């Protein structure tokens, strides 16, 4: 019997994890599993423009049907409003009667207010039951992130299960150290290794929900969204022109070598000159840049290059000017591509 017919609350899993930990990647894997048919995925994004909902099986629009009987929707303003609207549409038969929800939070989200809204709201708490908080920890960057960001620590404290991602990219010592750190913080927590195929629905769902008693100290500590760490800002770059592949490589190299320590996350959908109809997706997470991936087609009608950079104390104007120089956007007082590449004073790797 579905949750609608039985009147039982709909289980809701919060999927959290710092910027670039691998939440969208894991969701895409999960959505291929028949165990998730009937699931609604809610994507919450940080930044002027969102790319995540486009990268989930490349869909756009309001509520979209995904292959395998799942739905996908973006939290546009407020989580409670979005959930209420979805319930109404579900109850009126406008959208299929989903019987599970997975909420992907933004990487910088403090999960406490999210969970508080879900369990304290008079109507929402009747219709949804918090099934668990699944926190992704990136084996490569996890240590630095846990040290530096209160949001990352809270994500770990509130977890009912941890998924360790990118252990395939970490050496044995780094992997062991991050696992030991997770166990130090929460010894009883199940730690599932994504690279070993342990992050499967059977291990991630039905975690038993949240014990309100355990949550009380956190909720008492403040239900307001904690301010993002000082100096964290999002910059969005757009460009109509197709980028020569070499230019983009150089832009990334320069950005990483000169400003890498200040970059928390870079995500881009790029229009490249060699094949403008098949955009390239790039992901940077702190110093780690993942191999670019080519899509078969643009995920929505916007075929411009879009890049979102989340930085800490990163000079947004400088990033924009650097990008414009490589993208060939003329600007006052800005170097063009050849000036950068032919300049004998350019940083190593940039000279021809
Ligand atoms: N090698 C490897 N790469 C991974 C793994 N998980 C994620 N990635 C890569 O890490 C990058 C970021 O992954 P996403 O899934 O976009 O991360 P996210 O947590 O959704 O990112 P935000 O939405 O910015 O917080 C992508 O290039 C992924 O392909 C993993 O277990 N191993």
UniProtKB/TrEMBL annotation:
UniProt KW Nucleotide-binding keyword: yes
Asked if the Swiss-Prot or TrEMBL record annotates the protein with the keyword Cell membrane, the reply is no
Q: Which Gene3D superfamilies match?
A: CobW-like, C-terminal domain, P-loop containing nucleotide triphosphate hydrolases
* Ranges where the CobW C-terminal domain occurs: 232-327
Query: Catalysed reaction(s)?
Result: GTP + H2O = GDP + phosphate + H(+)
Q: What GO annotations for molecular function exist for this entry?
A: ATP binding; hydrolase activity
Any single GO CC term annotated in Swiss-Prot or TrEMBL for this entry: cytoplasm
Q: Which domain of life is it from?
A: Bacteria
CDD domains (alphabetical):
CobW-like
Cited SUPFAM superfamilies: Hypothetical protein YjiA, C-terminal domain, P-loop containing nucleoside triphosphate hydrolases
The function of this protein is: Zinc chaperone that directly transfers zinc cofactor to target proteins, thereby activating them. Zinc is transferred from the CXCC motif in the GTPase domain to the zinc binding site in target proteins in a process requiring GTP hydrolysis.
The similarity comment for this entry is: Belongs to the SIMIBI class G3E GTPase family. ZNG1 subfamily.
Name this protein carries in UniProt: ATP-binding protein
Its ancestry begins with: Bacteria, Pseudomonadati, Pseudomonadota, Alphaproteobacteria, Hyphomicrobiales
């Amino acid at each position: 019997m579905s949750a609608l017919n039985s009147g039982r609350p709909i289980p809701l899993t919060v999927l959290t994890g710092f910027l670039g930990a691998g939440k969208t990647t894991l969701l895409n894997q999960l959505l291929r599993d028949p165990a998730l048919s009937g699931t609604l995925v809610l994507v919450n994004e940080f930044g002027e423009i969102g790319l995540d909902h486009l990268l989930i099986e490349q869909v756009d629009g309001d509520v979209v049907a995904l292959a395998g009987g799942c739905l996908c929707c973006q939290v546009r303003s407020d989580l409670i409003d979005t959930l209420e609207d979805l319930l109404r549409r579900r109850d009126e038969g406008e959208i299929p009667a989903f019987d599970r929800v997975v909420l992907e939070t933004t990487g910088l989200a403090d999960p406490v207010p999210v969970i508080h809204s879900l369990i304290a709201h008079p109507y929402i708490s009747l219709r949804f039951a918090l099934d668990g908080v699944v926190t992704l920890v990136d084996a490569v960057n996890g240590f630095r992130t846990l040290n530096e960001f209160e949001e990352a620590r809270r994500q770990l404290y509130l977890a009912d299960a941890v998924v360790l991602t990118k252990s395939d990219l970490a050496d044995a010592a780094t992997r062991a150290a991050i696992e030991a750190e997770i166990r130090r913080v929460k010894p009883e927590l199940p730690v599932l290794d994504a690279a070993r195929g342990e992050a499967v629905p059977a291990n991630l769902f039905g975690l038993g929900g949240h014990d309100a008693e355990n949550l009380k100290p956190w909720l008492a500590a403040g239900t307001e969204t904690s301010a993002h760490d000082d100096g964290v800002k999002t910059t969005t770059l757009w460009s109509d022109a197709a980028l020569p592949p070499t230019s983009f490589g150089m832009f990334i190299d320069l950005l990483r070598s000169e400003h890498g320590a200040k970059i928390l996350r870079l995500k881009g959908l790029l229009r490249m000159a060699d094949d403008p109809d098949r955009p390239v997706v790039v992901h940077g997470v702190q110093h780690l840049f993942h191999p670019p991936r080519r899509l078969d087609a643009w995920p929505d009608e916007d075929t411009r290059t879009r890049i979102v950079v989340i930085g800490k104390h990163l000079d947004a104007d400088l990033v924009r000017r650097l990008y414009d120089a490589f993208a060939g956007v003329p600007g006052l007082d800005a170097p063009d591509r050849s000036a950068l590449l032919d300049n004998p004073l350019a940083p190593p790797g940039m000279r021809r």
